[in-house]
Structure formats: structure tokens, C-alpha cells
Amino acid sequence: MTDTKFAQRVLDIDISGIRKIFEAAGLDAINLGLGQPDFDTPSHIRKAAIDAINEGFTGYTVGSGIMELREALSHKFKEENGFDASPDEIIVTSGASEALEIAIAALVNPGDEVLIANPGFVSYNALTGIMGGHVVGVPLGEDLTMRPEDVIKRITTKTKVLIVNSPSNPTGGVQTRDDMKAFADIADDYNITIISDEVYEHFIYEGEHVSPAKYSDNVITVNATSKTYSMTGWRLGYVAAKSEYTEQMIKVHQYVQACANSIAQKAALAAITGPIKPVITMREEFQKRRDVLVSGLNAMGLKCSLPKGAFYAFPEVPDSADVASKFISNGVVVVPGTAFGNLGDGHIRFSYAASMSCIERALGIMERVL
Question: How far is Cα 196 from Cα 183, in angstroms, rounded to an integer?
Fold first, then answer.
């Protein structure tokens, strides 16, 4: 079978390096590669899903999501993020992954340029390519975040979108309030759209979470229950933007998905309106794990600054592919920095969403390997 049988936009992308490593890992491996909290979904959320099943809430919902959930999200954006989004300006999606897809599909024509952090989350590049767009990488500063001046340098007449991810995957970097204001100003001045990926907003240890939608209407805000409430497998995300955006995104959503999972929507409603204590408990535990992991990495000679958010560390290593390969072959799953862009070379991503005991065992193994 020849390659001409398939669409070039698909031939040009590869399976995610993260998923490759995750699915190839042995059962006994210590997995510091996948960004998935090791906590159970809180009990009140699980109960809401069980109740939904028992009550027969198992059919299609309105395409944009049940009204109760969108009303709760509207309140969340106003109270937590400082911007207004009416229920009609919110779409409930199958995870943040779908939210990103419909946002990029609604905005990017073939040949349009999308500014993306390099290194940055793997999906941004692939989705841009699928839509026929051209990725323009923005190098990171010493604090492993994007700088507004570096964004401006790369804007051309073809620039359509700037993707901002704070806290960041893979670096754990947190953009400052001044950065976010500057990005919003850039979006307004150059008539481009910011896609703000905020899935790690509740996991910040130093600094603060700032939504650029607070400062500009040219913003599509993407989020999910996946990380915040340890609901990765529930596949429940959401996107908010002014109606001119959501009117276009809903077209894509209705054909690729119809609606998000009905049971997961009820669970998400319980998550958004329920107690925040389980989230705080997770954040406090992640911070302890971060401190142990980063201290251990530095002690064995891997230069690693303290990440301010998310649950990733991104230390420098002399030969990232070789070191990552050695760690993996000795039972510690990590992700080489090149999985996140060519400027990720010389780094490895560690996830400290694994248990403390796994982190401590992994540090012992890695020290012996090095």
C-alpha cells in the first residue's frame, strides 16, 4: 500500500512521543512520563455519575452541554478567572483535547501561522498541522516561559493564533500577570487570537494564575476537569469565548462529537460546584513531591530549576535521548525533551503526579544509572 493512498496532513504527523512511551512501558516500570494524577476521582463526583446512570441520564444532551453545567462554568469564570462568559458562550467538550481541536479548526486556514512555545505541549503542533497551518516556534526564556518580546518578533501578516499554556506542560513554567496583559495587548494590536490552555490552573506553587480573557475579547479559554479533579479518563473539557468564536466552534463540535458524555457532564457539575478541599489536598501533595524530585535530581548532577506550577520538572541533561533511553531501559519511564519540540533537546520531562514512593524509588534507580 502506497503513501499516496492517505492524506498528506496525516502522513506529516506522528504518534505522540508521550503515548508511545506510555504504551510501551512494562507493567513493573515506574511511570514518571504520563501527566495523570494518581489520586482517585473524589467520591462526591463518582456518586454524581452513579446517580446519573441510575436515573437513566444516558442519552444525548444539547450539543453545547447541559445548561446547569454551563451555568456553573459561567459562574466559575467570573469568580475565579475574572471575566464574563455567558452559558451561551461555553461549549462542553470531550476533554481539553477536543476543545483545542475545534478552536484551531475554527481559526486556522492552510498557510496560516500559529505561534507555539518551543518546547510546548505536543498536541498544539499536530493539530495545527492537521488544519494545514504552519507552526512558528517561540523559544522560552530562562524561567522556561514565553516572553512577549519574543512573540512580537515572530508575528507576520500570516499570524493567526498565539497559544499560551500556563502553568505549562512540559516545563511547569507560570506566566506572570504582566506577561498575560502583554499577550492580550498583542492579540488586540495585531488582530490575532489567543488560545489559552489553562488545564493546570489550580496547581500553582509560586506565582498566580492569570487568564488573558480578563484583558481581551480575542481569547479562547480552554480547560477541563481532567487534571484538577483527577478525572482524566472521564474525558470532560470545556471552552469559553465570545459568541463570534463559539458560533463557529460549535459547527465542528456537532460533527466530530455531537455532545460530550452525558454521565461525565453530571460528574463535572458535581466537581465544579462541589468542595475544593480534594483539589487543595492534591496540590499540597504535588508540591511535596516536586520538592523531593527536584532536590534529588539536582543532587545527582542534573540541573533542574524549581517548577512553579503543573506537575512536571524539566531538568537539563547532556544527551537527553541517551539518558532518557537508559532510564527507560532500567524501568523509569520519562519523556525526552525533543518530544515537545526541537528546542527541548537537552532536557527530560518528569511527571511528579506519581506517588512519593515511586518518585523515591525512581531517584534511586536513576542515581545508579548515572
Answer: 10
